[in-house]
């Protein structure tokens, strides 16, 4: 009995039970809302169809609107030029002709006086336009005018004429006319945007047809509203209405302004093209639509399960991200208010995180202990090397032979250099990397203090750029620098008695994955003594260990040792074998360092 009760309680927390309850609550209001919305759907659909017809008509005439507005602007812009050149017909004609030649939209441009004579135009000669319809319309009502001519009096082509009056102060001088071809305006009518099968035409405020959407496709008057003139349609601008066309077909008409007050566009649509048929279908399916909406509400309500799942999944994902980027202060909390399946997942992640935190703490403690031990080893090695250097120093003090003292001093310098290396290792924050520039600087300072007296007059210059190396590279590099610097100190000199000897040490990066160490010193006549060759052997051995090659240059009172070597990636796999040090059996002939 208790088991059944527990199973039942567990079932009530399951995703299926919660989903069923959510659906039962969501479906009822959605069904009621769908019935109410169906009552208003047909009216809203009809209103949107009318607005769409106006937009489609305006879109179809958008190109013509741009051309007409461009022509009106051009006529306005020609006014000042005509006023300046009115007394010089040839100069005025050149302006008009240049405009037509530069602009492909216009076939004619000219200025006509009030007597109908045109001396300034893009067509050569003097023209009398007093008998033309456009001139008569302007004479009866002076003002901006857009009209059409089937046979242009000047060009001889079917054109659309845009007229702008020209004033000097308050005195009317005539008008400027700009003509465009009918074919150009017809080509601008946009097709393929819901205007297939429809008829679009434009007319002026006098009821004169300016252009239509196509030529030779039947009489345009057949699709116009019966018994209504085009000027009578101006009162219905920016509206749609239904009427019977001259062909007896029930059509839907839309009127929009192209150039307000001058040109208008009329769209004539049958019921299928206008979308009115969809309203009738909507009304016939008013009883079916609530059932469709009811089914749709079931689908919508089903997706509401994401409200139960997605919120908890996102929280669980955030916990995983925080844990992955290092937030290990405490195990993530269990999502107690989530469905049973997600709660079980959260509990599993909590247990896993707790185990990982425990294991990482143990590993960190082991790493810290290993680091402490390694630093202690380096510290003790450093102490032992310093002890050896001190013993050698004591031995130097009691030896009177100069050669023996010099040999022991060389050994002491090498041991001290090793001690400096291990001191930098145990003082470094990370045991897997060494600041090579700092290490070499310490070695140079130590050797300078020990070998160069206050009055020696030796100048030592260093230019050490920051460079991080692995310990297995830092050790041979520092030893090589020790040998090279020791030899530089030993053989530095000058030929000029008034000059001071000098030593320069530089360390710099040389492209990706390489670095260069240079040790340079001045030389004089006393610097040409032969050496034992041990320094050259050690330098060659350490260069081999660094996988580089030491180059020597001598001339113009100086000696230069250059070593270019590869800088190993600090993220290389551990366990790579260090190249073995191979000492040559004898110094190279003629070697001095």
TrEMBL record:
It comes from the Bacteria. It catalyses: ATP + protein L-histidine = ADP + protein N-phospho-L-histidine. GO terms for cellular component: membrane. GO terms for biological process: signal transduction. The chain crosses the membrane at residues 20-39, 287-310. Keywords: ATP-binding, Kinase, Membrane, Nucleotide-binding, Phosphoprotein, Transferase, Transmembrane, Transmembrane helix. Pfam families: HisKA_2. It is found in: Membrane. GO terms for molecular function: ATP binding; protein histidine kinase activity. Its EC number is 2.7.13.3. The keyword Transmembrane applies. Residues 307-361 form the HAMP domain. SUPFAM superfamilies: ATPase domain of HSP90 chaperone/DNA topoisomerase II/histidine kinase. Its main location: membrane. InterPro entries: HAMP_dom, HATPase_C_sf, Sig_transdc_His_kin_sub2_dim/P. This is histidine kinase. It comes from Paracoccus versutus. The lineage of its organism: Bacteria, Pseudomonadati, Pseudomonadota, Alphaproteobacteria, Rhodobacterales.
């Amino acid at each position: 009995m208790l088991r059944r009760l527990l199973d039942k309680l567990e079932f009530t927390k399951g995703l299926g039970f919660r989903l069923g309850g959510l659906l039962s609550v969501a479906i009822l209001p959605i069904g009621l809302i769908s019935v109410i919305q169906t009552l208003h759907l047909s009216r809203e659909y009809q209103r949107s169809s009318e607005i769409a017809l106006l937009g489609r008509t305006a879109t179809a005439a958008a190109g013509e609107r741009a051309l007409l507005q461009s022509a009106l602007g051009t006529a306005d812009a020609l006014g000042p030029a005509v006023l300046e050149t009115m007394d010089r017909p040839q100069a005025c004609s050149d302006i008009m002709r240049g405009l037509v030649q530069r602009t492909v939209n216009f076939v004619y441009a000219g200025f006509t006086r009030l007597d109908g004579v045109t001396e300034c135009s893009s067509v050569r000669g003097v023209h009398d336009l007093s008998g033309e319809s456009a001139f008569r319309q302007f004479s009866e009502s002076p003002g901006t005018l857009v009209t059409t001519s089937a046979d242009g009096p000047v060009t001889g082509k079917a054109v659309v004429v845009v007229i702008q009056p020209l004033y000097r102060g308050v005195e009317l001088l005539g008008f400027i006319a700009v003509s465009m071809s009918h074919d150009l305006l017809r080509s601008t009518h946009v097709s393929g945007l819901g205007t297939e099968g429809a008829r679009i035409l434009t007319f002026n405020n006098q009821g004169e047809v300016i252009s239509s959407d196509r030529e030779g496709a039947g009489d345009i008057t057949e699709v116009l509203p019966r018994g209504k003139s085009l000027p009578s349609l101006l009162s219905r601008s920016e509206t749609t209405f239904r009427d019977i066309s001259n062909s007896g077909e029930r059509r839907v008409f839309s009127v929009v302004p192209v150039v307000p007050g001058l040109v208008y566009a009329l769209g004539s649509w049958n019921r299928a093209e206008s979308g009115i048929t969809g309203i009738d279908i909507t009304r016939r399916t008013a009883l079916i639509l609530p059932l469709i909406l009811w089914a749709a509400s079931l689908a919508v309500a089903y997706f509401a399960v994401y409200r139960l799942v997605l919120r908890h999944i996102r929280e669980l994902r955030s916990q995983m991200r925080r844990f992955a980027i290092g937030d290990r202060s405490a195990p993530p909390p269990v999502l107690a208010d989530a469905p049973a399946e997600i709660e079980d997942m959260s509990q599993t992640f909590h247990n896993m995180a707790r185990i990982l935190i425990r294991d990482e703490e143990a590993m960190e403690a082991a790493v810290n202990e290993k680091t402490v031990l390694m630093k202690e080893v380096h510290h003790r090695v450093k102490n032992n090397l310093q002890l050896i250097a001190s013993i050698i120093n004591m031995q130097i003090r009691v030896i009177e032979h100069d050669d023996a003292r010099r040999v022991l001093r060389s050994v002491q310098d090498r041991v001290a250099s090793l001690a400096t290396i291990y001191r930098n290792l145990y003082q470094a924050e990370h045991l897997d990397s060494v600041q090579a520039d700092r290490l070499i600087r310490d070695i140079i300072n130590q050797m300078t203090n020990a070998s160069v007296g206050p009055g020696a007059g030796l100048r030592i210059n260093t230019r050490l750029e920051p460079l991080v190396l692995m310990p297995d590279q830092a050790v041979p590099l520092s030893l090589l620098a020790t040998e090279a610097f020791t030899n530089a100190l030993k053989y530095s000199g000058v030929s000029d008695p008034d000059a001071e000897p000098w030593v320069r040490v530089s360390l710099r990066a040389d492209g990706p994955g390489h670095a260069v160490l240079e040790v340079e010193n001045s030389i004089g006549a006393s610097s040409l003594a032969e050496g034992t060759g041990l320094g050259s052997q050690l330098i060659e051995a350490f260069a081999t260990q660094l996988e580089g090659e030491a180059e020597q240059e001598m001339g113009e009172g100086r000696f230069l040792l250059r070593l270019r070597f590869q800088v190993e990636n600090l993220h290389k796999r551990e366990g790579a074998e260090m190249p073995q040090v191979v000492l040559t059996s004898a110094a190279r002939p003629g070697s001095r360092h």
